[in-house]
Amino acid sequence: MSSEILSDSITFTDLALSEPVLKAIAKVGYETPSPIQAQAIPALLAGKDIVGLAQTGTGKTAAFALPMLSQVDTRSQNTQILVLAPTRELAIQVAEAFQRYASEMPGFHVLPIYGGQDMRGQLRQLKRGAQVVVGTPGRVMDHLRRGSLDLSHLTNLVLDEADEMLRMGFIDDVSWILEHTPKNRQTALFSATMPKEIRRVASTYLREPEEIRITRESSTGANIEQVYWMASGANKLDALTRILEVEPFDGIIMFVRTKTATVELAEKLEARGYSAAAINGDMNQALRERTIERLKNKSLDILIATDVAARGIDVERVSHVINYDIPYDSEAYVHRIGRTGRAGRSGKAILFVAPREKRLLYAIEKATGQRIEPMKLPSGDAVTAARVDQFLQGVTEVLQSDQDLSFFDELLGNYCREHDAEPEQIAMALAYLLQKDRPLQVKLTDLKPEFASEPRERKERNPRTNRGPEEGMKRYRIEVGRNHGARPGDIVGAIANEAGLKSRFIGQIKLFDSFTTLDLPNDMPAPLAQKIAGIHVRGQVLSLSEDRGPVRSKAHQKPKAKKKKFAAR
């Protein structure tokens, strides 16, 4: 059964969530549910199994976490909810989301478990108890075999990013775990695509699931330039003010996630001399309309808004949309940047991305089919040049105006005679006085983008091709191959979960009988290489080494040619 997208007029209070959960999401700043949330939450609260066809960035974590938390029993420390995730990064993110949504639930505990983490610590925490466990398939299997993870009281099971688990070779592990869970559990499966293997899992282990399919708006205007800056919280505001100094803009709509953030950011920008105002769901309609009118009539230049508060805004002079907070929903991104580039005009969309939010950036690119380019932050010289231009433009405008300057002519003429000063000297002194609180000459330290050297995700990667490594990558050899029963998914999964290297940074993989070649970042730190070298796949130690190509006959080899190895520690 497929559900239609509900009206966006629905609110979280309409969805029968528990009072503590509603308090928590109000504190987080969520105002209205996304389409996947509006459909999945009622179905899960009604006890139905669901299959959600939705990509990263649609708000699916809240779609299953909120209704399940509304029904969890915090008086018991038994594990009641199990979430399977393909990577430790996603497991951590989901666990943090559960913690955030349960902030008003005393006695609640969530535990992420994944490879590469100290097993003794996980055993201690499992013994203490956690109502929610979020884990990667391999580590969950380890604990089930040890008997350290008790699922006899399990009521809810979530398969998150099922197609990614299939790609990484975990689908048999997932089936094994499902066989070891209570038959009367409620199951939610989320996947961006529905290949036959995932369809088989759904038909085998889910009970008459309700299918929720989210169709997404994926087109953005060709006349909108899209760029992003990778910034941490510490330098985010500094980066924003530099951009505003140099970027020639008319009107700006700036998006943040919460109502509180609209006010805080507006106050900070006003303190820096910008004409800025907040607009959010707490404002009455009259004040909201007055604020939008100020943007239209140019008495206001920057509007800081939440998604809900910005609905229906159509102001022609908006030249820029700045996503100060990246949206969780890719569709929301499309709606946001659509407020510039109106009526055939060009526009610019700037996106701030925290290092841990890169998954959302890639999801937006995938949904829109457009690459968002990294931007170069303005230097101190660029800011100086912009301030000088602005200063000189002000002087020119006054000289070209009809302003009566005779009083000042007499005043400064008298000063020249009385103090034996040259007009140029007085002009320099006046210029200094005018700009001393905001100096024209700017010296700024570099704000480097976080993890700038990491290669971007490569789309449509084919791990079985044998072309040379891509730019920024180096080819390595590992000592496991077809004869050992290895598959690409085994290798990707082991490295991602045991060494913590994200799967998107693992390039081409080619299996041979006794070994495998794979591409990894060429600036990979030595400790990470050593960690990969010690990983076991199909009973074999990987023993990572740089690939030297086909082995030549002894007659053609150099006497002491040896390949560099990374010793396992």
Automatic annotation (TrEMBL):
Its EC number is 3.6.4.13. It catalyses: ATP + H2O = ADP + phosphate + H(+). One of its GO terms (molecular function) is helicase activity. Residues 551-569 have a biased composition (Basic residues). Pfam families: DbpA, DEAD, DeaD_dimer, Helicase_C. It is found in: Cytoplasm. A motif (Q motif) lies at residues 10-38. SMART domains: DEXDc, HELICc. It comes from the Bacteria. Residues 41-212 form the Helicase ATP-binding domain. Residues 10-38 form the DEAD-box RNA helicase Q domain. InterPro entries: CsdA_RRM, DbpA/CsdA_RNA-bd_dom, DEAD/DEAH_box_helicase_dom, DEAD/DEAH_RhlB, DEAD_box_RNA_helicases, DeaD_dimer, DEAD_helicase_DeaD, Helicase_ATP-bd. PROSITE patterns: DEAD_ATP_HELICASE, HELICASE_ATP_BIND_1, HELICASE_CTER, Q_MOTIF. Belongs to the DEAD box helicase family. DeaD/CsdA subfamily. PANTHER family: ATP-DEPENDENT RNA HELICASE DEAD, DEAD-BOX ATP-DEPENDENT RNA HELICASE 47, MITOCHONDRIAL. DEAD-box RNA helicase involved in various cellular processes at low temperature, including ribosome biogenesis, mRNA degradation and translation initiation. It comes from Gilvimarinus algae. CDD domains: DEADc, RRM_EcCsdA_like, SF2_C_DEAD. This is ATP-dependent RNA helicase DeaD. Keywords: ATP-binding, Cytoplasm, Helicase, Hydrolase, Nucleotide-binding, RNA-binding, Stress response. Residues 448-471, 546-569 are annotated as: Disordered. Residues 236-383 form the Helicase C-terminal domain. It is an enzyme of class 3 (hydrolase). The keyword Hydrolase applies. Transmembrane segments: none annotated. The lineage of its organism: Bacteria, Pseudomonadati, Pseudomonadota, Gammaproteobacteria, Cellvibrionales.
